[in-house]
Amino acid sequence: MRALLLMIGAALVLNACGSSANLKPPRELQPLAEPEVRIESLWSTQAGRGVGDQFLQLPVRHHEQTGYAADYQGYIKAFELATGKRIWERQTGLELATGAVYYNGHLYFGTRQGEVVALSADDGEIIWRVEVSSEVIARPAVADGTVVARTNDGKLFALEAATGLRRWVYDRSVPSLTLRGNSAPVIANDLVIAGSDNGRLSALVLSNGSVFWETAISYPSGKTELERMVDIDAEPVVVGDVVYAVSYQGRLAAVDISSGRIVWARDMSSYTGMAVDDYRIYLSDSKGQVLALNRRNGATLWRQDKLLRRGVTRPQLDGPYLVVADYDGYLHWLLRESGELAGRARINAGFYLMTDEYDDYDPAFRKENNILTRPLVAGERVIAVDRKGYLAAFGRAE
Question: Of 84, 195, 215, 259, which residue is most buried, by most CB within 10 angstroms?
């Protein structure tokens, strides 16, 4: 069954970018007549081998002025955000499946080998590694001395951040058919907020793992297993006393964090995630549309459909703009007020040469161009990494 899940996940990703002859192709990009903002390349470098042929999320993370990039073969690179210059690098031998999470001088990762590992943020040396029940492909959450990791078989493991000692385990069932991906847990208000593959959102007490509340964001419907998939793969977002969560083929809901009561909900399908400001929720839906919604009631404020079927990532806030990346290596800047496309850059323009490895691969987008994970916004820089580990930083020219 696990093999089936992997095949389904890959098929969904390929379908999303229109690689099947039976589906509509990705929307072709149109030139920006008068770009609102000029994007300039700041620096570029290589950071390992990226994710290879895997459909993994290995986003670049940072702490203060240091960035951290990793590849699926266990290579980790620490670099200066300002220049891209290497600070240190290490080959760990681990099959990394998540980006780094920084906490108290440590970097935490999940692996395809079914482990949670802690490394020194100073040099990448392994401090501890703990076996869990299955692979960890969603980034761990760390707070108050506790690491919480979601495994692919539906469990949540809470470990002591300093030593890896197990504190508690929460087990829940997983449907027979799911997307290739998991929702990363979030720690807020002494609770662990986690979405599941059955469309339910749970709040667990951080100290002991007991269930504080659980609520259904979406309900399976339809005749086939594919139609009944309602995975919560997008990471929940907590703002004040409200949790925002969205599922695939289901709903987006605002949930009261103290009770689990749904404040409002609306039909929506997304698996990439959200960005939230004081007034709006921004998300990329499963069709590749980017939307802005009213935080108070979920009403649509604007909808940008010029990136349809381009495998758009989770939006990130960049000053008055949103930035998203797509499967063809482009980054797009949208005005937060209107959704208008305001600027564009390509991460690997002029870098890649055609090789025999891809001679038999003819998708709508060349595979090596794929950006699979959200960009990092760090100060005035936007940093993105593509499937092959090419790392680049961009800035808005004044």
Answer: 195
